[in-house]
Amino acid sequence: MLRTFDIILIGLMIAAASVTYKIKHDAEKQMAQVNKLERMITDEKDTIDLLKADWSLLTQPNRLQKLVESFQGQLDLQQVEAQQIVNINELPQPKPVSEGFDDVANIITEANAGKTAKPDTTMTGSIARPKAAPKPVKRIVQNATPKPVGLY
User: Fold this and answer.
1) Which pLDDT band holds residue 88 (cuts at 50, 70, 90)?
2) Global pTM?
3) Inter-CA distances, 105 with 97, 112, 114, 117, Å
4) Residue 152's pLDDT is what?
5) Could you give the count of Cα atoms lying within 13 Å of 150 in the half-sphere of its Cβ?
6) CA distance linking residue 36 with residue 39, whole number of Å
7) Backbone angle region of 114, left / alpha / beta, with phi > 0 → left and psi within -120 to 50 → alpha
8) Is the distance from CB of 117 to CB of 110 less than 8 angstroms?
9) Are the beta carbons of 136 and 143 closer than 8 angstroms?
10) DSSP secondary structure letter of residue 136
């Protein structure tokens, strides 16, 4: 009886050790992944800082003024006048979309009228459909061996 109990305890100890090892191994994998993500986040933050520095360098007023002067002939830039700046209320309002529905309704009504509508006789100047091109002849090459490619 003592031997059976000992064998069961040894089996439980081996199972517990293997489960502990597996949990430890999975935790190490997760930590490696967390460290990798932290490095990636740090790299992205460094990239953002670098891009902000580049942006501030590119948008310096002195640099922009030199660019304006050098490309004035091509761009034909002009300074903004005070009267060009307006409030949102001063902008013209777009036309309502519903105005064109009456025209569409009339077209549909005329199309549904059937024989009472006049046929369209407008000449479009279209050309005749081109004929289909003949199919190319397939050539069969027998005993063709590829030439070796290399540096000579």
Assistant:
1) confident
2) 0.42
3) 14, 11, 15, 15
4) 43
5) 4
6) 5
7) left
8) yes
9) no
10) P
